[in-house]
Specification:
781 residues, mainly beta, 4-stranded antiparallel beta sheet, elongated
Length: 781
């Protein structure tokens, strides 16, 4: 049977946990192995509750926190106590013989709050369990060793200005790492260290609220509030932590606009056009953003007629601008009032209004040199057409506003009258015609008249003059379009053939009323009926027109009702045609009678085309046959006047010594004797071989060689008369200086050079060369 296990925990500092055992100790009813009646043993039932050890305790030696003892341990040293689990052997150690449990180091509850251990008693010799293992918990008892902290601090909050007392601003929260279930180590209380009397804090919840009413942002916009959290319920000895709350007052529209001055004075020149900026006005509003936006308006009617005011893009300034043209001579100053009003008004602060202000404005108009001013903004004149040049059209007039006596000169801008139809008197502005006008060609003439001060040509103004050309009856009526019509052979008498329309280029009115009339002969083949609307109907008379091959020509007379009346005539061509049943034209000419042996026009055209093609082929063939064969010409690259020879064969390489006789390029004395037989030309293809003139024996000069070659070319009848120019390496004979080349030098190897002939002895032709290279020996001393 297992014995009883007893764990004794002795607490340092007078603390004891023996009361936490669930049942008292029970003793044996008798001694094991003693004779007598059988003893009955009742096993105790242990309940291992939580055991505690104070945190942060540190001593010079391991601290005894309890003792493990079994009833089977009779003090003979045969029992061995074991401890396993969390921290066993490191944090907690046990004496195997006595069962004493010690803690070896200081514990921190915030790092680990409890340890689960397993206690067991075994036989020391055989390690046989004497008691079943029992699990128990050692909890680290908390002490107040952690101050409160604000993990989200510092804080920033915003509250509207003028808020009521108790308006919530923000809630701050502190945390204490101590055990909230044991004592008051984690019981926090909030207080305001700095920020009174403007703000307060709820001691339990940490909610910050306004403490006074009507806090004005314009007076102080930002507040720094220090909040403290203290544990132990705020009692003395508790630990504390603090944080800051920056409270910003947000703006509300609680201030009306105010002009910094009651009178504003501006000036503007009279030539300033509409929209010209006169000046800026600004009403001061200490509010921010949309709460400071303003609208400006002119209160007096006299100022609103000449000037206008608007708000700039920022919504703060009033822009005073010219509304209509100003005139110094008419009015020299304007006085009016301007009002500034907030555009956004909060009804909660109407008691602090009114949210507007008024200021006076005076604008002085300054005089400036002005161009002449016309009496009208634009002129509309009229003149009849076809009038002779010089006809009066009208007059324009302008005056100098600065000086009425200043003379004005008038002119027409050439670009507006490119045809020079009008002229103007420079002194008085009278406009006359320069050529007869035609209304049908152009109805309106738009001129620009320029008025310039004689004393100052820079001062000029313009005006538009529109001249209308009035109509006269000068165009006879005509048919709107040429009429070539037809009538069917089967047409019934009185049938409508065509509606004829007339056109009069003159203006609508009596001049354009047109009448039309046909032939008055009662036996006429056709009848014309006037429709009284500028048109007439062409009708077939009661008797049908006799058929004929030629068309009918119907004369039409047209006249208008103008003063005077104008007449004209026109002719309508009417063809009598055969028509199909639906009324369409089948044929308007009699069919030609074709003989059986005749050919159609298409067949005749085809025959003519074939004959022409054959003739063209014959002519081309004959021309090609009669063309002479062109003689073989020298290729373009062969037509060279130097010693460049072109061959049709590839040559025999280095062993081919007969391809070209180079003796012509060498000294005639050293050349090999020419081979017998004729020599071919070197500058053309060798068609025929001709005898070659032999080189002259004995002394020869260049002129003789060239003459010999020229004579040989001229006497050769087998080739065209090409000239041949060849380059020779032979310098010739006859010169007193001999050869200038060093190739034929007479010096011998190992021998001394012979005496050189002085250059001065060569003659006058080599004087320059003697001066440059003929060095003279210095005279002997």
């Amino acid at each position: 049977m297992w014995g009883l296990v007893r764990l004794l925990l002795t607490w340092l500092g007078g603390w004891s946990c023996m009361g936490r055992l669930a049942a008292p100790a029970l003793a044996w009813a008798g001694s094991r192995g003693a004779p007598g009646p059988a003893l009955l043993r009742t096993r105790r039932s242990w309940v291992w509750n939580q055991f505690f050890v104070i945190e942060e305790y540190a001593g010079p030696e391991p601290v005894l926190i309890g003792k493990l003892h079994s009833d089977v341990d009779r003090g003979e040293g045969r029992t061995k106590y074991l401890l396993t689990g969390e921290g066993a052997g490191t944090v907690f150690v046990i004496d195997e013989a006595t069962g004493n449990i010690h803690v070896t180091k200081s514990l921190d509850r915030e790092e680990k709050a409890q340890y689960v251990l397993l206690a067991q008693a075994v036989d020391r010799a055989s390690n046989r369990p004497l008691e079943p293992p029992s699990e128990f918990i050692i909890k680290v008892q908390d002490i107040n060793d952690n101050p409160p902290i604000f993990p989200l601090g510092p804080y920033h909050a915003t509250v509207p200005e003028m808020s009521n007392v108790g308006t919530s601003v923000i809630q701050v929260t502190a945390h204490d790492a101590d055990d909230p279930s044991y004592g008051n180590s984690a019981k926090l209380v909030y207080t305001v260290l700095d920020g009174l009397p403007f703000f307060s804090v709820d001691p339990q919840t940490g909610v910050v609220r306004t403490a006074i009413p009507n806090m004005d942002r314009e007076t102080q916009e930002e507040f720094l509030v220090v909040i403290q959290a203290k544990d132990m319920g705020g009692h003395m000895g508790g630990l504390s932590g603090s944080t800051t709350v920056t409270v910003t007052l947000s703006d509300v529209n609680d201030n009306p606009p105010k002009f910094p001055q009651s009178l504003y004075q501006f000036s503007v020149v009279e030539t300033a056009g509409p929209g010209t900026l006169v000046g800026r006005l600004r009403a001061q509003d200490p509010d921010l953003g949309d709460n400071a936006l303003m609208a400006y308006s002119i209160l007096d009617g006299e100022g609103s007629e000449a000037f206008s005011i608007s708000t700039d893009a920022r919504g703060r300034d009033g822009l005073l601008t010219v509304r209509k043209p100003l005139d110094f001579e008419t009015r020299r100053s304007y006085s009016f009032r301007v009002e500034a009003t907030n555009t956004l008004i909060d009804p909660a602060y109407l008691r602090r209004g009114p949210f507007k202000d008024v200021a006076s404005v005076r604008v002085a108009v300054q005089d400036a040199p002005e161009p002449p001013a016309f009496t009208q903004a634009a002129y509309i004149l009229a003149v009849p057409e076809n009038k002779s040049p010089g006809t009066l059209v009208g007059q324009v007039s302008a005056a100098d506003l600065d000086s009425q006596a200043s003379p004005i000169r008038y002119s027409i801008l050439p670009d507006t009258d490119p045809e020079h139809c009008f002229s103007i008197e420079p002194e008085d502005g009278t406009i006359r015609t320069a050529v007869p006008l035609d209304r049908e060609a152009r109805v309106w003439h738009n001129l620009t008249v320029l008025a310039t001060e004689v004393d100052s040509s820079a001062q000029a103004s313009r005006v538009q003059v529109a001249i209308r050309t009035l109509d006269e009856n000068d165009n006879a009526p005509q048919l709107a379009e040429p009429h070539d019509t037809f009538v069917c052979e089967s047409a019934t008498p009185g049938q409508l053939i065509q509606v004829l329309r007339a056109l009069d280029r003159d203006e609508v009115g009596n001049n354009s009323r047109i009448s039309l009339q046909g032939p008055l002969d009662p036996d006429a083949n056709f009848t014309v009926r006037d429709n009284q609307d500028g048109s007439a109907s062409l009708l077939l008379p009661s008797r049908p027109a006799p058929p004929r091959q030629a068309p009918y020509l119907v004369p039409i007379e047209l006249w208008d009702w103008g003063q005077p009346a104008l007449r004209s005539t026109a002719t309508v061509t009417v063809s009598v045609c055969r028509c199909r049943p639906d009324g369409s034209v089948a044929s308007c000419r009699p069919e030609a009678q074709l003989s059986p042996a005749g050919l159609s026009t298409g067949a005749l055209l085809a025959i003519v085309t074939c004959v022409g093609t054959l003739l063209a082929l014959v002519v081309l063939f004959v021309a090609l046959r009669r063309q002479k064969q062109e003689a073989l010409m020298v290729l373009e690259e062969e037509d060279v006047r130097e010693n460049i020879i072109t061959y049709d064969d590839e040559g025999g390489g280095e062993e081919d010594t007969e391809a070209f006789d180079i003796s012509a390029l060498q000294n005639p004395d050293g050349a090999a004797p020419p081979a017998p037989g004729p020599t071919a030309r070197r500058d053309v293809l060798p068609w025929a071989r001709t005898p070659r003139q032999p080189w002259p024996h004995g002394p020869a000069d260049m002129a003789q060689l060239l003459a010999l070659r020229l004579r040989g070319a001229d006497d050769d009848p087998s080739v065209p008369p090409y000239d041949s120019v060849q380059v020779y390496g032979y310098e010739g004979r006859g010169s007193s200086c001999g050869s200038l080349s060093s190739l034929g030098s007479g010096s011998e190897i190992g021998g001394a050079p012979g005496p050189a002939e002085p250059l001065d002895d060569w003659g006058p032709l080599f004087r320059t060369l003697a001066e440059l290279y003929g060095a003279k020996e210095p005279p002997a001393p």
